Amino acid sequence: MTSLWNDDEARTWAAQGDLGLRVYTSRLLGRDPRLVLHGGGNTSVKVREADFFGHEQDLIYIKGSGWDLATIEAAGFAPTRMEPLLRLSRFASLSDADMVTQLRAAMTDPMAPTPSIEAILHAVLPAKFVDHTHANAVVALTNNPQGADRVRAVFGTRVLVVPYIMPGFVLAKAVADLLAEKSLEGVEGLVLMHHGLFTWGDTARESYERMIALVSEAESAVPAFTPATATATDDWIGLATLRQAVSQAKGAPVLARLDASPEAAGFSLLPDVARLATRGPLTPDHSIRTKRVPAVIGEDVAATVQAFAAEYDAYFHRHATPGQTRLPAAPNWAVWPGRGLVSFGATVKEAAIVADIAGHTAATIQAAEALGGWQALLEADIFAIEYWELEQAKLRQGATARPTLQGKVALVSGAAAGIGHAIGKVLHEHGAAVVALDINPEVTTAFQGPDQLGLVVDLTNQDAVKAAIIETVRRFGGLDILVSNAGIFTAGANIEDLDDANWTRSLLLNLTSHEQLLKHCIPFLKKGIDATAIFVGSRNVRAPGAGAASYSCAKAGVTQLTRVAALELAPHNVRVNIIHPDAVFDTKLWTPEALQRSAERYGLTVEQYKKRNLMKCEITSRDIGLMVASMAGPAFAKTTGAQIPVDGGNDRTI
Ligand code: ZN
User: Fold this and answer.
1) By CB atoms within 10 Å of each CB, which of 1, 239, 275, 538 scores lowest?
2) pLDDT at 439
């Protein structure tokens, strides 16, 4: 581990004073995942500042809860008066709720974030800058039967060793007591057993570089070891089955993120992985994201998840005090022998955070084993953190109303433009992860992001279709919503004059490709969450027009396909419905000239022509998207085999 301090960068930050440098070195810590992961760790700086009224006072700028060190800004630090914090540290006891109230009351800016729960500890450490991390090497050293001895052997008297104490007031109090009796002469840091490391200094650089130096020494004390590696084998139906079981245990759909890297596969195949992986987290606050332990998947994937849920319920009842509510009993990650590590989350971001922690956990457990045995905290200590009122509140902070399709995976064909594009975007707005298929390469830029993926696919090529479905499952863990939309308008011609190629091409693209896409999706839809297939038909099915045989027959065929599929898939809880749009003119197919020509043919203005329906309204691509999102959601949970018009009312079909 080397210091990332850079004089030029530091000079820029120094223009903003002590707080600027505090932001700078906090970000340096956050840049290295071996030091802190996702919201872990905290930092502070003590300053003397004039308040709004010109009175000088001692303040501590302490990292606010909900901020990440890697991306923190000055606004992420809560300016808090030192005097009340020091007074609080002299209390014999203090409840969590009272502590948070008093921390907030001590802030000089009521709009600042709530100070870290370690604020009092930072305040009692008699140094200007204080840094705290959960460095992998330090937790490997301390999560160990001889941990305290090893720490002393490595650091000598340069650190004080604090046995595990639950973070918050009790820990701050213990450290304050320790400081009252021990001199800090020559001491550079505190090692908190099973938790992490504090360092301090007169300058931002000194505190940061002490952290780097101590962690480097801890690293060199951990024997060199090579993490196990292996080649993962694929099991896509198995992955979808696992995601379905976890979603059921959680009572809400989750995305599953598979880490099939050689390291993940290697860890999953360790002979004693079931014993190793289930001893506990690296540092207690990981349990908020990962739960205490992962599920270790056996032969029967679903049964393993159910067994995990039963054991989780028992764990809750072993430790719960009256008034506590059990969290969902589903695992947040799983070790899947031979396949790798799988992390779950309602969003891609949530699953990615869990995946990151899981990867570091797997590596650090092996390091600690090489050091003489991985020993995590007692179950009761982890429970105290997992069910800690303040930690629950921290998670709730980020919680907003859940979008209706959150955690769901949708596949939309023909999505580069027009109706398909609108469907994909509306499903995404409703919270679904969306994979968009099109032969037009624009689909890749139209759908881009952590939970949007555009794939160029020729739907008449079955191998390409199968590969796109696998990619969907690889990326998000399964498939819940298929929207089969791709289609073409073939040139109008009376049957007498109909070109054979026109007929064949319409049936291939407007009918056969839909049957093939559905066929290859069915095995995954059967493992979906409230799974549904939605086809895009046409008003033409029930109100055909002369000269449109090739188009209308294909759409009629898709309608019949929907009805048969609804019959076949109902026993598997897969709903199949069709939507019949009409007169959607906001697509590329309809140029202003084409609209003008068609309107004139009926002796209408373009405006009249666009609203040629009973309700005299214009139908847009977005209207179709909104209907599809409804049909994919709970309102249609018990509807299958239905044909839904979105046409403003048509006297030929009502
Ligand atoms: Zn900590």
Assistant:
1) 275
2) 97
Give 308-371 as a DSSP string.
HHHHHHHHHHHH--TT--PPP-S-SEEEETTTEEEEEESSHHHHHHHHHHHHHHHHHHHHHHHT
pLDDT in tens, 414-440: 999 999 999 999 999 999 999 999 999
Ligand 1 mean position to 134 CA, how many Å?
A: 6
Mean pLDDT of the chain: 93
Q: What share of the chain is helix, strand, coil (3-state, %, to 5)?
A: 50, 15, 35
Dihedral over Cα of 359, 361, 366, 370: its sign? positive
Distance (angstroms) between ligand 1 centre and the Cα of 119 equals 11
Domain ranges of the chain: 7-221, 236-396, 409-584+619-646
The CA 36 to ligand 1 mean position distance, Å, reads 9
Fold (topology level) of 409-584+619-646: Rossmann fold (3.40.50)
Distance (Å) from CA 167 to ligand 1 centroid: 7
Tell me, in angstroms, the distance from the centre of ligand 1 to residue 68's CA.
Answer: 13
Residues paired with 126 in a beta bridge: none
The pLDDT of residue 400 is 62
Torsion of CA 385, 476, 356, 291, to 10 degrees: 20
Q: What distance in angstroms lies between residue 285's CA and the mean position of ligand 1's atoms?
A: 7
Kindly give the distance from the C-alpha atom of residue 503 to the centroid of ligand 1, in angstroms, as a whole number: 68
**Cα of 283 from ligand 1 centre, angstroms:** 8
Average pLDDT over residues 66-79: 94
> How buried is residue 379: exposed, middle or buried, by Cβ count under 10 Å (0-12/13-18/19+)?
middle
Q: Which residues have CB under 8 Å from 396's CB, separation 6+? A: none
Q: How far is the CA of 545 from the centre of ligand 1 (A)?
A: 70
CA of 284 to the centre of ligand 1 (A): 8
Share of the chain above pLDDT 90, in %: 79
pLDDT at residue 391, rounded to an integer = 62
Could you tell me which CATH class the domain 236-396 is placed in? Answer: alpha beta
Of the options 3.90.230.10, 3.40.50.150, 3.40.225.10, 3.40.50.1110, the CATH number for the domain spanning 7-221: 3.40.225.10
Helices (H) and strands (E) in the chain, counts: 26, 19
Tell how far the Cα of 343 is from the centroid of ligand 1, in angstroms: 23
* pLDDT over threshold 80, residue 393: no
Residue 183 has pLDDT above 90, yes or no: no
